[in-house]
Write a structure and sequence with these properties.
There is one protein chain. By secondary structure, the chain is an alpha+beta fold. It has a single domain, classed as Translation Initiation Factor IF3 (2-Layer Sandwich), CATH 3.30.110.60. The protein is built from three helices and four strands. It has a four-stranded mixed sheet, sandwiched between helices. The radius of gyration is 13 Å and the shape is globular.
């Protein structure tokens, strides 16, 4: 669970990042979850864009992916959301 100070710091880091993944009509499949888990292990902080043709709302998609991957939801803004999960092998981000 992230504190508000940690969440604010992560939002600042994610602000300049572009979305790594797009989720569309196909929704959240096992392969999408696997790719996001691998990206979280490598980068710790990722941004995901939810396309207009998706059946899920951004909040629903963010919560579902956070639960599937064990990540923390940092923020949901418009059709984009940010996930964070500390890397087990090579932590890169030092939280305040």
């Amino acid at each position: 669970m992230l504190t508000s100070k940690q969440r604010s710091y992560l939002r600042k880091l994610a602000n300049s990042e572009s979305a790594l993944f797009q989720i569309g009509k196909g929704g959240i499949s096992d392969s999408v979850v696997k790719q996001i888990e691998e990206a979280l292990e490598a980068r710790e902080l990722i941004k995901v864009h939810l396309l207009d043709n998706s059946d899920l709302s951004p909040k629903e998609a963010c919560d579902a992916l956070a639960q599937e991957t064990g990540a923390d939801s940092v923020q949901v803004v418009g059709s984009k959301f940010v996930l964070y999960k500390k890397s087990g092998e090579n932590p890169r981000i030092q939280l305040p």
